[in-house]
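Backbone geometry:

***
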Amino acid sequence: MFKTISDPADCEVRSVIRFLNAKKVNPSEIHRQLVEIYGENVMTDGMVRKWVRQFNDGRTNVHDKARSGRPSVVNGGLVAKVNEKIRENRRFTIGMIFDEFPQISKIVLHEMVTNRLNYLKLCSRWGPKMLTDVHKTK
């Protein structure tokens, strides 16, 4: 039995597909070998066939093509402004912050407050996540 590899990078799997395709291995056999090493959730047989077709058509790059995604509105300056508003009033709600910064969705604001600024909801106040065990029991 072979050792299984968990969570492979997409380009790694595509490199294996490219290699086996160059050795004239058929797509079904490529898929079987990928599943054997990387597990059931690695790639569907249809996706393997798609990549084999692309490599046969002359594609050599195994990495994703650059795509233009939606630019993020969150930057360091905006995070600092949100943090300043929070420090002015610790009894804020996400809705109150949203009123101050309508260009940011409430979901993004909540993620910014909890993940980027590391605030934690404490009853009706927000406080830093860096609480000691004594603070947590109070």
Observations:
- Residues 10-22 form the longest helix (13 residues).
